[in-house]
């Protein structure tokens, strides 16, 4: 028996990177996981890998309210409510000089607006005692160049976690954040932009001497999703190999 046996979970961005690793881990703990993301073929591959008994894919963009409605209609049709919500989103990067209005709008539309409505629209389905996990980032506070708009959006996520934890505590719903550091995901490849030395430079900044693995972040997601974290509320669990502490 896993820690999440017979539980229902939602993972946004569940087709790649941290979202995919979290989906796999939650399934391993016994949950049925609904995943969403913009690329249907990627989601379908996850379902094929893990099996339709464990994963349901609902393609969509969390920045589009109608897509979120379709996601939660599918969850409602299962008839068991929602026990775990991992709101996981990311976006592209640009320096201050490079930032355009379109770039800024897209990041905040996905990371801030999308996350807010991902949680808001889940409220009628969330079972009492459910766990909501928001994916923030250590970049929210460390000032790394070219992460400005992204970092600001992730700082908003950290703020959401505190406020929503307070607002939902009377239902026993625990809202917490995670803040990954440098993790080996397709998003990191996008930041590197084909620069073979970029990952080496990121690695040098990590006291443990290596970039993190998505599975290591997924372990923390599983912890927050389970009863083992019953006394965590409004917290921010940093998963960064010591990057911002040492």
Q: Which regions contain 5 or more consecutive residues with pLDDT less than 50?
A: none
Could you say what the CATH topology is called?
A: Rossmann fold
Radius of gyration: 17 Å
Question: Quick one: overall form?
Answer: globular
Could you spell the SSE succession in H and E letters?
A: EHEHEHEHEHHEHHHE
Measure the end-to-end span. Answer: 38 Å
List the helices and strands and how they pair.
Elements: E1 8-12, H1 17-28, E2 32-36, H2 40-50, E3 55-57, H3 65-78, E4 82-87, H4 101-120, E5 126-135, H5 139-142, H6 148-168, E6 174-180, H7 186-192, H8 198-204, H9 214-225, E7 236-239
Parallel strand pairs: 1-2, 1-4, 2-3, 4-5, 5-6, 6-7
Could you describe the 3D structure shown?
The protein has a single domain, classed as Rossmann fold. It contains 9 helices and 7 strands. The protein starts with 7 loop residues before the first strand and ends in a 7-residue tail after the last strand. Strand 2 (32-36), helix 2 (40-50) and strand 3 (55-57) form a beta-alpha-beta unit. The model has no long low-confidence stretch (mean pLDDT 95). It has helices at 17-28, 40-50, 65-78, 101-120, 139-142, 148-168, 186-192, 198-204, 214-225, and strands at residues 8-12, 32-36, 55-57, 82-87, 126-135, 174-180, 236-239. By secondary structure, the chain is an alpha/beta fold. It is globular, with a radius of gyration of 17 Å.
């Amino acid at each position: 028996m896993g820690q999440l046996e017979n539980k229902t979970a939602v993972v946004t961005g569940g087709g790649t990177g941290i979202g995919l690793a979290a989906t796999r881990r939650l399934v391993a703990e016994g949950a049925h996981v609904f995943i969403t993301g913009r690329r249907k073929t990627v989601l379908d591959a996850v379902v094929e890998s893990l099996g339709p008994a464990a994963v349901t894919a609902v393609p969509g963009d969390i920045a589009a309210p109608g897509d979120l409605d379709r996601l939660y209609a599918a969850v409602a049709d299962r008839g068991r409510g929602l026990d775990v919500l991992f709101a996981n989103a990311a976006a592209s990067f640009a320096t201050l000089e490079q930032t355009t209005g379109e770039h800024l709008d897209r990041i905040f539309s996905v990371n801030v607006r999308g996350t807010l409505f991902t949680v808001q629209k889940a409220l009628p389905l969330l079972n009492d005692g459910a766990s909501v996990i928001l994916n923030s980032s250590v970049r929210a506070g460390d000032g790394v160049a070219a992460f400005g708009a992204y970092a600001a959006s992730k700082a908003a996520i950290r703020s959401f976690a505190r406020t929503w934890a307070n607002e939902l505590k009377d239902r026993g719903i625990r809202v917490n954040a995670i803040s990954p550091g440098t993790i080996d995901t397709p998003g990191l490849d996008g930041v590197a932009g084909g620069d073979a030395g970029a990952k080496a430079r990121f690695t040098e900044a990590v006291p443990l001497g290596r970039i993190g693995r998505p599975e290591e972040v997924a372990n923390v997601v599983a912890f927050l999703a389970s009863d083992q974290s019953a006394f965590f509320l409004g917290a921010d669990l940093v998963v960064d190999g010591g990057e911002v502490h040492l």
